[in-house]
Amino acid sequence: MTETPGHDSGTDLHPAALHGSASVVVDVQDGFGDRSWGTPNNPGFEENLHRLLAAWSRSGRPLVYVRHDSTEPGSPLHPDHPGNRLQRSLSVASPDLVVTKSVNSGFHGTPDLHAWLTREALSGIVVTGITTNHCCETTARVGGNLGYDVRFVLDATYTFDRTGPDRTTLSADDLARATATNLHGEFATVMSTAELLAALEVADVQAP
């Protein structure tokens, strides 16, 4: 397995690395409540994300919200649809940057996330949001390829069941496990909310 420079391929959480990290919250939008998506997994998502955002905001670390502006007119995420709005739950914290995109990766939007992170001298990102195996996973993969230290908080994401080309339906939980397996040690360090909060607490104690 090829390791990507700039990220930890093991299980050590390295709290000190959070000093140079931004939280990147991907596509937490009202449109994902539309029935057409199905039923999401991870009922603890909202509480976990709220805890992370509150702690991150208290620490004064950089925060980025990413919003998907679909180019499909009928999509619940299209800019003309009310579902395009960021969910009210995100109001617990004020972002330093809002990126809009029409593809999967948060690094392929406006403003340019990579350029902003570079200007801010940030070397890591903490990825949360919707959906686990699409825009969150893609953002983590691209971040890892760009050399960032990527932390992926699995239980602060959710996704939906999906049917493949062979007509086999994989459950959302199975897809989330596949994302964790794909990312961990290759593109990112996969963590839980509890682990990230513990690392953040240690990092705050260690802060100069």
List the total number of helices: 5
Helix content: 25-40%
Structural class comes to alpha/beta
CATH-scheme architecture: 3-Layer(aba) Sandwich
Tally of discrete structural domains: 1
Q: How would you describe the shape?
A: globular
CATH homologous superfamily?
Answer: Isochorismatase-like
Strand and helix layout:
Elements: E1 21-26, H1 45-59, E2 63-68, E3 97-101, E4 109-110, H2 113-119, E5 124-130, H3 132-145, E6 149-158, E7 162-163, E8 169-170, H4 172-183, E9 189-191, H5 193-206
Helix pairs in contact: 1-5, 3-4
Quick structural summary:
This protein has 208 residues and is α/β, with parallel strands linked by helices.
Give an account of the 3D structure:
By secondary structure, this protein is of the alpha/beta class. It has a single domain (18-206), classed as Rossmann fold (3-Layer(aba) Sandwich). It is 30% helix and 21% strand. It is built from five helices and nine strands; from the N terminus they run βαβββαβαβββαβα. It has helices spanning 45-59, 113-119, 132-145, 172-183, 193-206; strands at residues 21-26, 63-68, 97-101, 109-110, 124-130, 149-158, 162-163, 169-170, 189-191. It has a seven-stranded mixed β-sheet, with helices on both faces. The chain has a two-stranded antiparallel sheet with strand order 7-8. Helix 1 links the parallel strand 1 (21-26) and strand 2 (63-68). The relative contact order is 0.22.
